[in-house]
Amino acid sequence: MAKGSRQAAWEFFGTELKRRREDAGFSQVELGIRVFVSGGYIGQFEQAIRKPQLDVAQRIDEILQTGGFFERTWRKLIDDKRYADYFAEVVELERLATKIAEFAPTLVPGLLQTGAYARAVTLAANPFVTDEYIEEKVTARLERVRILSDATRPEYWAVLHETALRIPVGGPAAMAGQLDHIAVIVREHKAVVQVLPYAQGAHASMGGMLTLMEFDDAPPTAYTETSFSGTLVDDPAVVKRAHRAYDLLRAAALSPEASLALIESAAEDFRRCPNTT
Fold it and tell me: Is residue 18 exposed (0-12), middle (13-18) or buried (19+ Cβ within 10 Å)?
């Protein structure tokens, strides 16, 4: 079942609330008394039927001693306007995921992007905006990238179509830097990256990009996106089909070793292009 705007992320808010409440030994009624709402309200928060007010989220943090987790999550879900509504919930789920697997047919995925690449992509889609707007979007993108450097980082897989390696986003120099960045991430064992070559022809995700996420205590999700909208899905049957498509993509792609060699070769090709400064 496709989720509405941010709904899946609110469900994770509720799942985490239930887990931490039970770990603290409180019933819904007991926690409700302490944060000045009814036990029924706590149950509705946990089921994502009702969304708490900020002061309630703050009191929950205080009672459950969660270090501001629920306030931070609330603010991200309510106030963060740096992302499109359909994508904001995906950003929150990325932080909770234990595994992320992506297929990128044309663009380098956001979690692998450099600042120069992100800036070029943002400017291409928004040619009349201010520099401040561009930098805000780039900063938000680079904040997402940090999860690959965290001690608790998710297991990250990416299958890139060769198209994503060949389009000179930002110019040859920026593209060479982008591909070098991917190579470093791979060599530092922060990601497994495979390339689906042109020669493979038709493949299992001709419809576009695909992101799969898995979690410790919640069902897996699949996310697809077009230029102006995205869909987050947790229906088990649909997610199973998405996983099968991803398995087929990985099977059709080059090995990680051959993919790294192609990525580094493409970077050298861009460095040999004229006007790379």
Answer: middle
Round to whole Å and give the CA distance between 70 and 52.
10
CA-based nearest residue to 227, from 105, 128, 62, 72: 105
pLDDT in tens, 66-86: 999 998 888 777 655 677 767
- Of 147, 140, 50, nearest to 93 (Cα)? 147
Quick check: is 226 in a domain? Answer: yes
Structure tokens at 273: 């292009």
Tell me the per-residue pLDDT of 111-159, one tens digit each, with 9 for 90 and over.
999 999 999 999 999 999 999 989 988 998 898 998 998 878 899 999 9
Choose the final residue of a domain: 59, 79, 99. 79
Q: Give the pLDDT of residue 277.
A: 47
CATH number for position 226: 3.30.870
* Sequence-ordered strand ranges (E) for the chain: 99-104, 155-161, 192-196, 210-214, 221-225, 230-233
Query: 148: domain range?
Result: 83-271
Residues 6+ apart with CB under 8 A from 81: none
pTM of the model: 0.73
In the prediction, which pLDDT does 4 show?
Answer: 47
Residue 277 domain-assigned (yes or no): no
Do residues 36 and 101 share a domain?
no
Residues 275 and 175: their CA atoms lie apart, in Å, by 12
CATH of residue 61: 1.10.260.40
Examine the domain organization and report whether 236 and 126 are in the same domain: yes
